């Protein structure tokens, strides 16, 4: 704990409660999740780059989304795994906390921007199929991805910089397994107006990308019901959006839960569970959503496996 009117130069991550045996079990589980996340998303990036059947805007965006999933889990999970092996609380310097928080928020903002762009891409594909290749050409896709990455990283510079100008005089113990912004704001003894402004910016990012997603899917559903009456045609149109829609539901619902205020006694455990969903479970599941529900990706994977088997035989 810190004395009043002094500011922290390092923080202690409380991590997960429980015995050493429980920590070892959690380490094994999360390490497995991390490896599968790395391998699954890396495979998606590779097949999107090399397979000609996947040379379309949807898979181009998917490759960047997979890269973001690798980044977001790598920013959080290695630190968390190291903390599970250490006895007691984990120490993290102020500079390391700044870097981790900035990268986590920047990558998350980029991912939400990209999910919104992917929703618009699906809208154009379903509602304007004849103009799809003209609208979503290579230059447009490159521009959209570049803007998403630049916006995500530039948008978070000022909030993170100003946040670490605050005075942390209440404590330097962060009740989470990483430098969580919500927990850090609770440790500050500065004016709560800035805290409310930070949360307002987070809501702006969340709903700024959610609105075009909702509008796009409203038009998609309306178009399918009106212009594609046959069950097979409607099913095929829905299948092209199913993987993206599933990731949208999981991603947005996890983040929206952070703004639901539980009882104060449950808030820390609640935030820890939601943080696990966002940084560990969701990146682990997304490769399965995009492979098991997509025939082209499955075909590309099987062809890749066959080629690898032939190479080993030769």
From TrEMBL:
Domain of life: Eukaryota
Keyword Nucleotidyltransferase: no
GO MF annotation list: G protein-coupled receptor activity; olfactory receptor activity
Transmembrane segments annotated in the record for this chain: 25-47, 59-81, 101-120, 141-161, 197-220, 241-260, 272-292
Pfam assignment, any one: 7tm_4
Family: Belongs to the G-protein coupled receptor 1 family.
PANTHER family found in the cross-reference section: OLFACTORY RECEPTOR, OLFACTORY RECEPTOR 6C76
Protein name as catalogued: Olfactory receptor
Species in which this protein is naturally found: Gorilla gorilla gorilla
